Structures
1.
Amino acid sequence: MNLNAYLNKRIPCSCGKEHFCAVKAVDIEEGALKRIPGYIKDYGFSNVYMIADPNTWKAAGEETARLLREAGIHFEVLVFEEEEPVPDERAIGRIFTTLPEGTDLLLGIGGGSINDLCKYVSYKLGLQCMLAATAPSMDGFVSEGAALILNHMKVTENAHSPVAVAGDLNVLTKAPMKLIAAGLGDTLGKYTCLLDWKIAHILNGEYYCRETAEMAETSLKAVRELALSGKVEQRDPEAIRSLTEALVMTGIAMAFAGNSRPASGCEHHMSHYWEMKAFLSGMFPALHGAQVGAGEVLTVKLYHMLAKEQPDFDALKERPFDKAAWEQMIRTNYTQAADGILALEEKAGKNDLSGRNRRLDAMKENWPEICRLIDTELPSADEMISLLKACDAPVSVKELGFPQAWVRETVLCAKEVRDRYTMLQMLWDLGLSEKYADYADEFEEELSRNI
Ligand SMILES: [Zn+2]
Ligand SMILES: [Zn+2]
């Protein structure tokens, strides 16, 4: 797949939009590190601040520093002391306070956190950033947001994408399996997020770009094939390239769509919910991609069950909504974060009955098509489980290290973290949330028994 065909040019599309992704180069090949000095010179940078952590410094930082020195490029280095720096106010301040005067490029050496920090700080300061990726662990390489922890809460702040991403296969294939597995989980999550998008388009007329969705699907299917043949867990360079490309492609698709629809559906809402709960309870969240993978298993399971329902849409329109009970549930489960969630619903009106009834009408008309899409577009939950397990990735809430009690809550509450139509909201529309929360609880119990 030639990702560079989608970069840095305006592409007119059948959806009516002109798509654009500002990244100038994506280089996922053996020896990509060697080409970093060339990218720096070609794009006119001359004062580089390299940011790494102890592991990424060893994996690619030292080598990159040697290459920059050889090329006569002026640079300075910040290596965080922490093995896994948290992208919070302290880390942001650390980069800012140590930033050498005259810096024109932040060169991140790493994956998730280091890249988020570089994207954010360079954006705020009107500088540019570049990434030497060390692990195919998540889909934020070229996205325009930065996932940060501000005031103890996980937020996505405005940022910009790196000018170029160099993913050297000699480095990426040696990444810890835990990180490769997380990247696989984040990628497999695209099955349900793309379906959520398609269904939201059918039911709500939400903007949908077929060509963007197909780009994301093509890279996803390539990863699935390689994972099925066992090549991801073997660190086969072709599989690692394909996985990294799919993760980058998600960012390009987000830039094309103008929002995170091609990257994030209810499997991501589950992950956000768990992360929020973990922070609120003083626990450590798991890796983003690991959480998305386990969320994907549950989402696929519930989607396939939903395709067997024959709802009485007209009767469902009479169903009342006990708003006070719902608010109470939100307060109980979201604790300190509840005010924000209630304010979001005030604005979004996801649970307004007029909207629900309009969607029920649309479901009545399109139900056979929706069931067909679920059957044809989603692999089985068993397949997801075996692909993830082959890489030792967690498949259940318990394996992520979270309490079983969160499972029911997830089905009932996780949809409230964002104003975005997904399978979880569809369950609510159909009055199935409670019943599916029970199913999910049993399913997860069974999963943890089989570990
Ligand atoms: Zn389009
Ligand atoms: Zn993700």
Note: The longest helix spans residues 353-377.
2.
Amino acid sequence: MKVAIAGTGYVGLVTGVCIAHMGYHDVVCTDIDKDRIEKLNKKISPIYEKDLDEFLEREVDRGSISFTTDEKKAYEDSDVIFIAVGTPERTDGSANLEYIKKVAKSIAKYSKSGCLVVIKSTVPVGTNDEIEKYINSKSEKVFEVASNPEFLAQGTAIDDTINARRIVLGVESEDAKNKLEEIYKGFNSPIIVTNRRSAEMIKYASNDFLALKISYMSDIANLCEIVGADIEEVALGMSYDDRIGAKFLRAGIGYGGSCFPKDTKALHWLSNSNGYELKTIKAAIEINEAQKLKLVREADKDIDSFEGMKVCVLGLTYKPGTDDLREAPSIVNIKYLIERNAEIHVFDPVGMNNMKKIFGDKIIYDDNIKDALRGSEACFVMTEWKEIRDLTPEIFLENMKVPRVYDGRNCYDVDEMLDKGIKYYSIGRTR
Ligand SMILES: NC(=O)c1ccc[n+]([C@@H]2O[C@H](COP(=O)([O-])OP(=O)(O)OC[C@H]3O[C@@H](n4cnc5c(N)ncnc54)[C@H](O)[C@@H]3O)[C@@H](O)[C@H]2O)c1
């Protein structure tokens, strides 16, 4: 089949190269961002994602994937079109569906009748119904819409797609189901077929459950600090219970990224607008907002004034393995320090270029960890990249003017740091 994909971000591009990789279908990806398409045509990935460069190069060379800004060319003879554009949050917390509607309008204009439109972007329950009505109202042709939410995690996106733990197909007809099963030929993953509304809800319920788990651990970690328990021992003890599971039990400075923050707010908004309050999700959002500033609040207790003080921020991206800074806790913390006139030196192995677009010359971008640490009086660890986790107490002692480390990702051994004379704070841990 001929498959088109609208949007070449983390989801669209990875989906495109993975479908192309299976070798059954021809893929064409389209984006409104000219620079992105130019790079992709030169086999350069516009995003940082493990294994993506190799997949991209191989599939372009094989001729199984192509890239264009020309929507007509992409859509006109496609049998299936995936929509993988952004659904960012609006100021009221609801999901902004404008990007999806723009793609839908172009599909109505350029695509052939009978083409299956598949919404991969995360959208509120009822959106597939709404978009189907919208496309069909714009054209004499007939289109069916299906939901196929995406569950990949940035940093492991290729593996998560090729070896998906599940593929959810939200369909309203046998024809849509058959076409999507054909698309996923070669993927060795369980396929779950539901109606469109359940598929849309599965995505939000899954993401929000993970966000809730993180906020729950933040909450328990905060209580551990007060009552003298250790969150890592607590998490270990909890992890042996299969009903709880061992993942997502790490305490830290909360979640960020392009999904959890907006998806919790969107589900909360959807619930409220239907006259129901999702109290669990409301709590998860509130806890996370407070947790993001835990380190600087703690440092405030030790430091009278940040005015002119050299401070160091290690790790900028919202998690390791990605260059994505959307909703990264580092951003609110750096803003906090800028407002207090600190001299802020930062280091991140892949996130520096994206950070320059946010803070420009308000902060100093160092080429390596030692330069960022040198002469600083406080170090804030925001992301647990391997090179940051691997730092020894000696590196802090040798390079910092005053060895104070505020560790938002519990990277180091508490006893070792304290015994070596470092003022060390981490989340929910005791000596
Ligand atoms: N990033 C993730 O980890 C992840 C995981 C699962 C689901 N999702 C969901 O998938 C969707 C996409 O997320 P993302 O992170 O890939 O977004 P992204 O911002 O990385 O990429 C979106 C792309 O769509 C392009 N675009 C916008 N309008 C367009 C149009 N009219 N035609 C063609 N392209 C257009 C943009 O230029 C951009 O390149 C969102 O709804 C998100 O919630 C994301």
Note: The pocket of nicotinamide-adenine-dinucleotide is lined by residues 6-12, 30-33, 36, 84-87, 99, 102-103, 121-122, 150, 152, 154, 258-259 (CB under 6 Å).
